């Protein structure tokens, strides 16, 4: 089981980092009292829980009671659970700027945010000394923080990115969440071939009819080239998914065929992709 504790300075990005871990399939709990760490560990170890990756966020509100925090760490060791502590750091100037931009109170809650930051930094020194990793987020973009997590905990930057391919019919409207839309209404249409009319793009005879055309082959090659160019750029930007919509008139023949072939291109190139034929039964 992977057990990660995310802590550090308020305003340094604890919630943002937890969101990254959540996108990567971790069971995330934010601001759990340290006294409950052992209860969470027992829950995760239960046979029916089905949890093998946990990310726990603890900020200064929980760490004020150091005894509970270190008792919780000892409980993890007793249960033979290896854990990592990520401590998020940032400069005073950046933290002040972030609190002013969000207009949120510092958890310590005195009159002066600057004094709160200084007090918090002092209080967190024992925790920082036990950290497995210290990330300074002062100048980090979210995608850069995500890449660091992937490098350390996943060992690959493509992990967690998925391409959703959706075939659809223009007569039923565009998919609302599409990042890219390809219009394949220019390709040969099986609808006008009597023996193919009632079939779909999942049938080999329909696929053969469409893909025997050089135009269809060229179109598919251009789709593949574009996606193999764009997917790495989206991964580098820190995105988790891309929605690719491929449409024909009714969403049964040409769009389905091209979507299936596009899925094969992505999977053969090592990317995770899923497919949905929105209008195939309309």
Strand content: 15-25%
Which overall shape is indicated by the principal axes computed on the Cα atoms?
elongated
Structural class: alpha/beta
Strand count, sense and closure of the main sheet?
Answer: 5 strands, parallel
Spans where pLDDT lies below 50 across 5 or more residues: none
Count of DSSP E strands?
9
**Rg over C-alpha atoms, rounded to the nearest angstrom:** 25 Å
Distance between the termini: 45 Å
What does this protein look like?
With 282 residues, the protein is an alpha/beta fold. 43% of the residues lie in helices and 19% in strands. It has 11 helices and 9 strands. Strands 2-3-1-4-5 form a 5-stranded parallel beta sheet, sandwiched between helices. The chain has a 4-stranded parallel beta sheet with strand order 7-8-6-9, covered by helices on one side. The mean pLDDT is 88.
Give me some keywords for this one.
282 residues, alpha/beta, 9 strands, 19% strand
Write the layout of secondary structure elements.
Elements: E1 2-8, H1 14-23, E2 27-30, H2 37-45, E3 53-57, H3 60-63, H4 66-78, E4 83-89, H5 92-102, H6 113-123, H7 125-129, E5 133-136, H8 142-154, E6 162-169, E7 180-183, H9 204-211, H10 214-236, E8 241-248, H11 254-268, E9 272-277
Parallel strand pairs: 1-3, 1-4, 2-3, 4-5, 6-8, 6-9, 7-8
Helix pairs in contact: 1-8, 5-6, 10-11
Q: Quick summary of this structure?
A:
The chain is α/β, with parallel strands linked by helices. It has helices spanning 14-23, 37-45, 60-63, 66-78, 92-102, 113-123, 125-129, 142-154, 204-211, 214-236, 254-268; strands spanning 2-8, 27-30, 53-57, 83-89, 133-136, 162-169, 180-183, 241-248, 272-277.
